[in-house]
Design goal:
The complex is a heterodimer. By secondary structure, chain A is mainly α. Chain A has 22 helices and no strands. Chain A has one domain. The longest helix of chain B is centred in the N-terminal third of the chain and has 42 residues. The chains are: A mainly alpha, B mainly alpha.
Chain lengths: 430, 167
């Protein structure tokens, strides 16, 4: 127990000193493993992880989904998603912010990253909302919060990594994210209604679109919709494995950008290199996390903790509440991916020992990460927006996301209390 | 000193570009291959048997070719909670510390990948189906991990020298 606690303390110290997350975890994992077993054992374990977990077919799902998202992002399809949302909701109070959330949800359906979703949609939605005199807080808040849907609505890079860590089906995890993702859209809409009721000047309404315009706007998102249906539908009916679906999705997104002529050779190179860079970043953290998880395993703490929780006979829901609270607090101070990679190896034996479905727990974890992306002081999506909107103060954005965080906390409670919502669709799969 | 720094900078630049192009080609390749594989399976009832192994090996190259790129730009994922409240000098000292720890871990990676290369060479490890030898891939990973180590040391050095220059 002491070894594990010391391990966590050392990791935290290194991370807070600014050491890259993956290397901090790798260092502590290897040193800890060496102390508990032998130096040779630790070094061999390291070599094995470095080769086997990278030279790996299943993990090609990560770069392929990253490429898909990047192709879609540079194809200007985000504009059409936003326009479609606007056509139906623009005339309402706060309608442009609602259109933003819709655009985020639609973009999330072809992109597995929250940061990419927020960054892409902000370029489209922010100028429009500003032109209509929206308050910066509401405008930025809706983009930052809407962007978090990127990792909940499939595909999702975070769910892929969770699936690998816990050996659960990535296909089922993806399908499980659909209902909670839609619930998120609904929650954010409610938050916008609440804000504009209290301060109508923050979100004035836009023009009403005619049905002809609406039809045209709906038709223009056909490409992105077919891509989603092909990729996620293919996973749902079991036609593709996640890796195959990712390959199809990436190739499909590439074809779409060719058809739309948004892709030059220079852009293509930039998109691919950028995707490779992102892949390397994710793997650097993943490798460190695997080494740290191996160290945790030899301390025996995860299994002992799971056994202890089973023995003391606490009410299961209480344990879950404690776990969710820990995720929430760590989410505020840690980078999101690292938060998951550090805690999940500890928690998932407990959760499955209590008889809960690990698919459901994956959704709970992703929702906690969504929240961590917009909570102060280091919500990543806030900083993405800060980077694109130089003239908006960080404090303004944080104030703007507060109603959305409240909506997310309600959603978290619903998802925790009613596992059926996450599990109904995956259970219908073949 | 400054010409040396300049020369190494130019060399790093070329290295980076070369690795970037290598990544781009392979990523596009695995995308096309996965796509072709699924089409082959469904349309022609003839999956490409080698896909699995080719993609597997390509992944090793892609990830490790990306490692120096991310390291050079100090682009690794970090937790930036404390940095924001520190003054410039302590922040610089912490950044130097972080770069050195990164270099150390990458250095150990390099060493272990070299040991792995030797083992693959000795035992003749290869993929099951195509019988592609493992050792060149382990060696490539060792090489790029080494380059990343150098990049991280260079980052630390740059922080030290520019810190001294600014007093």
């Amino acid at each position: 127990m002491l070894a594990a606690i010391l391990g966590f303390v050392c990791v935290f110290l290194l991370l807070f000193a600014g050491v890259p997350v993956g290397f901090g975890m790798a260092l502590v994992g290897i040193v800890g493993f060496a102390i508990l077993t032998s130096l040779n054992g630790a070094l061999n374990m390291m070599g094995q992880i470095l080769f086997d977990s990278v030279v790996n077919y299943e993990l090609s799902v990560l770069p392929l989904f990253v490429i898909m998202g990047n192709f879609v992002a540079q194809s200007r399809m985000a504009q059409e998603l936003y326009d479609a949302g606007y056509a139906y909701l623009g005339h309402r109070k706060g309608g442009l912010a609602m259109a933003t959330v819709i655009a985020c949800g639609g973009f999330a359906a072809v992109c597995g990253s929250s940061v990419a979703t927020a960054a892409t949609i902000s370029k489209v939605a922010m100028p429009q909302m500003r032109a209509r005199g929206y308050a910066d807080s509401l405008a930025a808040g809706s983009i930052a919060a809407g962007g978090t849907l990127g990792i909940m609505i499939p595909p999702s890079v975070i769910l892929v990594i969770y699936g690998i860590m816990t050996e659960t089906s990535i296909s089922k995890l993806f399908i499980a994210g659909i209902v909670p993702g839609l619930l998120g859209v609904l929650g954010y809409m409610t938050a916008i209604v609440y804000v504009t009721r209290r301060r109508p000047a923050d979100g004035p309404s836009g023009d009403r679109s005619s049905w002809r315009q609406r039809l045209r706007a709906t038709r223009s998102v056909g490409g992105i919709t077919s891509l989603f249906i092909l990729v996620i539908g293919g996973i749902y009916i079991g036609a593709f494995t996640p890796t195959e679906a990712a390959g199809i999705g990436a190739a499909g997104a590439f074809a779409l950008s060719l058809i739309r002529r948004t892709l030059s050779a220079r852009y293509l190179l930039a998109v691919l290199i950028d995707s490779g860079r992102t892949t390397a970043m994710i793997f650097a953290v993943l490798l460190g996390a695997l080494m740290f998880a191996n160290f945790l395993d030899v301390t025996g703490v995860p299994t002992a903790l799971a056994a202890w929780v089973g023995e003391v006979d606490l009410p299961a829901i209480l344990v879950i509440v404690v776990i969710v609270s820990i995720l929430f607090i760590l989410g505020c101070i840690l980078e999101s991916l690292s938060m998951m990679l550090l805690t999940v190896p500890m928690f998932y034996p407990i959760v499955s020992g209590l008889g809960y479905d690990l698919i459901w727990f994956g959704i709970v974890v992703v929702l906690s990460i969504e929240i961590s992306l917009i909570t102060p002081p280091i919500g990543l999506n806030i900083f993405v927006l800060r980077a694109t909107l130089q003239d908006v103060r960080t404090g303004t954005i944080f104030r703007g996301v507060l109603p959305f965080i409240s909506a997310d906390i309600v959603r978290l409670a619903i998802i925790v209390l009613i596992p059926w919502l996450s599990l109904v669709l995956p259970r219908l799969m073949l | 000193m400054s010409t040396l720094a300049h020369k190494s900078n130019v060399m790093f630049e070329y290295l980076e570009r070369g690795l970037g192009i290598c990544i781009a080609i392979l990523l596009f390749g695995i995308m096309a291959l996965t796509f072709a594989d699924v089409i082959g399976r469904y349309v022609f009832n003839a999956p490409l048997k080698a896909t699995y192994e080719v993609i597997k090996l390509a992944m090793g190259v892609i990830v490790f070719a990306g490692l120096p790129l991310v390291t050079r730009k100090s682009g690794h994922i970090t937790v930036s909670l404390i940095e924001a409240i520190l003054g410039p000098v302590p922040r610089r000292i912490l950044n130097i510390f972080a770069s050195l720890v990164t270099a150390f871990v990458l250095g150990v990676f390099t060493w272990r990948l070299w040991v792995l290369t030797e083992r693959f060479w000795d035992y003749g490890d290869a993929t099951m189906f195509l019988r592609v030898a493992h050792y060149p891939f382990a060696f490539f990973m060792c090489l790029t991990a080494g380059i990343a180590t150098v990049f991280s040391l260079a980052n630390a050095l740059k922080l030290v020298t520019s810190g001294l220059a600014n007093g």
